[in-house]
User: What shape does this take?
Amino acid sequence: MAWEVVIGLETHVQLLTKTKQFSGASTAFGAEPNTQACEVSIALPGVLPVLNKQSVECAIKFGLAIEAEIAPRSVFARKNYFYPDLPKGYQISQYELPVVGKGHLTIQVGNEEKTVRITRAHLEEDAGKSVHGAQEGMSGIDLNRAGTPLLEIVTEPDMRSAAEAVAYAKKLHELVQWIGICDGNMQEGSFRCDVNVSVRPKGSDKLGTRREIKNLNSFKFMQQAIEYETQWQIDTLEDGGKIEQATVLFNPDTGETRAMRSKEEANDYRYFPDPDLLPLEVTEADKTRVKAGMPELPEAMKGRFESNFGLSAYDAATLTASRDVADYFVATVNAGAETKPAANWILGAVSAKLNADEKSIAHSPVSAAQLASLLKRISDNTISNNAAKQVFEAMWAGEGEVDSIIEAKGLKQVSDSGAIEAIIDEVLAANTAMVAEFKSGKEKAFNALVGQCMKASKGKANPAQVNELLKKKLSA
Amino acid sequence: MSQVINNSLKQLGQMLASKQISSVELTQEYLRRIDALNPDINAYITLDKDKTLAQAKAADARIAAGKAEVLTGIPIAQKDIFCAQGWRTTCGSHMLENFIAPYDAYVIKQFDAAGAVNLGKTNMDEFAMGSSNETSYFGGVKNPWDRSRVPGGSSGGSAAAVAARLCAAATGTDTGGSIRQPASLCGFTGLKPTYGLVSRYGMIAFASSLDQAGPMAKSAEDCALMLNIMAGFDEKDSTSVNRPKEDYTRDLNKPLQGLRIGLPKEYFADGLEANVGAVVQAAIEEYKKLGAEIVDISLPNTQLSIPVYYVIAPAEASSNLSRYDGVRYGHRAKEYTDLMDMYCKTRAEGFGAEVKRRILIGTYVLSAGYYDAYYLKAQQIRRLIAQDFTEAFKQCDVIMGPAAPSTAFKIGEKADDPVAMYLQDIYTIAVNLAGLPGMSIPAGFSNGLPVGLQIIGNYFDEARMLNVGHAYQQVTDWHTRMPEGI
Assistant: This one.
């Protein structure tokens, strides 16, 4: 039987705020345990939550970025359950009325575009951490993370392959960084995905029973986990088994998923509106104000690159796949570079070097300004494209600025026609056989002669000039 | 010195300012009285004489420096529901028996800033759940008017302390009547302000949408001075209302000519003790003499207020009390096999029977499948109850009636009958559900036991209510009467 996998994602995005969702404690990562746990974080008797306005702005930004309905009035609710790292015995979240409603995100898988519907996004607070093994026979609790602002983003079950799910997650990952609401650091848990996976016979419009893979913190693991889980579900069904709704964990060492708890043990969270917090109201004016502070969104920028700069759809998409790449490109153009060569160099030489050195473009050894000045030396015929590659390598290695490198390496192009003519004359005299071939109609011989001239000039002759002068001499 | 304890806060302030008495002397007088009477009355859970006297000394220095405010140097009793830095703060529970608060509640900060002296932490029903103070882990409190009787609850310790003159004034909190019912049973003036007027920060939560702190004192004037300290916007409490500071003494002496008093027929129906009703009627006659007009009104949903309250308050409480899990502070069971066992034993040992009953009710009404029928329905009726008052206030300026259906009852009389106990709050609970201000003032006696008159005002109309209370206290002396043997 042919099977179809159906995937939906819930992503916890840690918001880039200085302080926690409901208190003034710092959210900085990596501090000594419990040094960032104020009286509210540890839920002392009598403390009360106060909503972080910055996190609300983050939620509005996200809503605007996915063209979602932003609720004029949303409500914080308590999700009640006992766990040692949950100090209040409840998590403040949003349940019936989330701040961000239906929206969408367009992803690219291969050459196909696909729209993933986003069901909702809501504000909530993170829990602390249990620390095991620090003390014999005891568990420790670190509440530094307790109360950290999260935006939970939930999709419809719109994805049909691991590749689509990963493409969505990557796109979302870039978007939240693009609009500046998340640092995107997956190792530190700033961006965590739960993936709901079910399978059904191809052609069926009924959803199968889903299992939820929890807490995936890398795209590679996500791909592996979904592939494993999909195959496991198909095998189970083909062997006559039944899928039980469950929460599963992915083990990166074995590449397998395993059930953590079954539905039978599921909690009744007893959600109810938190009486300590007023409903969250977002006005049109709030939205307008937040929008004014937002950067141009990737889709808009991509369109602009195509229509204004004449870039191909592919190049425009690649340049706007990440905010850092787009910023680098725009900075290069703003520093005076022509758009097409800038795009070619960034997607070519720069990307290749970054990949080889495992560096991000934000930490590129060659800055956008340096790249622009290099491109300027190509366009004003100071150096050839080939020489430019050497200059680029030298700049990457930290050998200095464009002009000093050209100078030091003697890469300046010869554009003095007298000097070039002298070289051509020498080459023609030394290669009479080739000249004869050309004159007998073999066009290829011309290119060989150009090559000889460039070689004789040690690559410094202006190739266009060589072409032109050579043509003139041969037809004379 | 025996005279001093009957003095109003204003008089005490004048004596301190004119150096007739020092704050240390005044404080020592109260501490002496506490030493003598508290072992029997049990109004205080925690005393810390060193801390108290240090504050008194500081107040004397402040007075000497000419920087005194109205309450500087005056000893105030604090209900043990308010976190006060360095003070044991138990909330009447074994769960917090050894909890030393590491921070100050907003209310405590306000009194500290005013230079008032914290005399000690007063007894209360466990987590403010009770109407007789009998649910306190630290033992019941005796009513100073008849020590075989309860003082009311949950602010029973503060109530007994005010009535027995074991403090100049006290703080209380009122979730369903916990200031007004004990004020009625112990014969003093207690005010529950409009919800949101006094910050709840640092006040240990029982039912967050109903809890409100307020003053408990000998007179309306004293309550006004106390409220001046307690009220104020606090950005740490999202439900605190941001409005300009008021002087609650400003209207105390306004004439009552033309005041429209609404009498809800439901407050004078079955369930009200005849003697109590008679005292309340007599008080209303007094108001007529002061120029007030009587308007007959109806609050048709009154009888629904108790069932609604006993869904909403336990629901919120069940969640609010989840933090007492033995992990970070408070009681933890000595021996346990695993995490679940630790939770179960800790909470089984740490909470008393009434608290457990309400956690169970609250957990039940919030459970999947019951939420709509109980919690959601209760919230809908809550709006109807508030609507009753909105309609009523179109016809009158204040509403009057009894604060409690009976006088103080015998210790143990209702302890095993939760429903009879819950009915104690029949006249007070609707006010909390609506978020309105309510007050009880001494209106006379029935068989030697005090009876309170309840005054309910419109939102943020505390100044008028205090005026109404004060005017009555200018022409009557019920509020100056003292129990014998104190």
About this structure: Residues 41 and 142 of chain B are 5 Å apart (CA to CA). The radius of gyration of chain B is 21 Å. Chain B has a mean pLDDT of 97.
